[in-house]
Description:
CATH topology of the largest domain: 2-enoyl-CoA Hydratase, Chain A, domain 1
Distance between the termini: 36 Å
Largest sheet: 7 strands, antiparallel
Amino acid sequence: MRIKLKSIGLIGLGMVAGVAVSTNFSALAQRAEAPLPLEELRQLSDVFALIKSDYVEGVDDRKLLQDAIGGMVASLDPHSVYLDKKAFREMRESVQGKFVGVGIEVAMEDGYVKVVSPIEDTPAYKAGIKAGDLITRIDNVPLKGMSLDESIKKMRGEPKTKVVLTLSRKGDDKPLIVPVMREEIRVQSVKAKLVEPGYVWLRIAQFQEPTVDEMAKKLTGLYAQNPDIKGIVLDLRNDPGGVVPGAIGVSAAFLPKDSVIVSTNGQLADSKQTFYARPEYYAGRNPGDPLAKLPAALKTVPLVVLVNAGSASASEIVAGALQDYKRATVMGSQTFGKGSVQTLRQLTADTAVKLTTARYYTPKGRAIQAKGIEPDVRVDETAEGDGLNSLRLREADLQKHLSGDEADTRPVKHDELEEEKRILALAKKQKPVEFGSKDDFQLAQALNHFKGLPVKLAKADTETEKAAEKILVKPETQSDVGIKPEDRKAPASK
């Protein structure tokens, strides 16, 4: 039985990794033209009446009908969902880059919520919560056996309300009781800094409405201070996606004007679209072109895109486009594989249905769905291996996921259970990776790539390479260190 680890982004976003939203706040465009199945509708009515008359206690009519709608939509695929008043409000907040919560990145470990990182200047950060802390109780309710989503909902709430977290911290014998006041958290979508003279680290944590504007401001500022930039690392690791215009704008910053960024195909006519590197596709509500004042050098500066299993949807649009045009070297591990479009159809002033309406395709027509983007250079998360990243849930692992137009090409592993136990044991000893830090192994490999230095390839690739070397006729001076997988010689046939 395969162990799967589910991780999410920021507390309060309420988004499964890889869920992108193409917002379209309009009334339903079409009504079903086929006659409704009367027999099944009668059965629904009969069941409703039975529950009202025979159930052990009274049930609210509206709750029954909302649950029926929710079940119908949820049965389609993992990303289609009915949004009630609360969920609809949270969805709109997350797209705008804000939410009410405590301000931590989390993952599930051993049945508890593990703090990956507190967000700077948030209530959790000020309360002294640290990376690696395990949250064992919320308001004294044990979390053991509770899903990650349920735990997150307990930490959400209204601004200026208190939530009490019980923490287990390595090195402390007694649990820590930490009261935290919920506040509105504004997510920083874009980070950028000079990590070495001439080399920029550009991090997109999630694609939101302000992303393109924020990226343009930060890059313009960096170029003003350091005009001789030799390379940019575009970091999309653990970026679960977001709004499509953000992905188009980020891609357009590095590609020629009018380049095809992504295309979609679905049942409706407006689902069959092609999106280009033009302001009308990424400028959003703001007039003008937010990329107009970017330095011309961005179109040609060497570029590496870092991805992992947490890079999904809008992240995969960007990685796929830059890879198709050979504009960037994609480095890391295979992405999530969420290549479907969700459109938000508003039902009332406070409710909506988020419905899967199309599939994404890269400029060369490659399907993303249930496959993802395969990196040009596979690099593990740490020097010791890929750690928990290799065990993460991907789109192809989700129940009811849409099939892809191409098969999942991940290699089949033997003795998987033993391998996963080994990885879990190793991962517990490792510190959470702080992206952009001096200890960021994958970032270091990206910088090595720019400088023409050896790149440490993924252990799986290295082991395959060593096995192949036994049957290869290889020049004595040839070295494969840093060579892309597709450039290696294939084993000689017998």
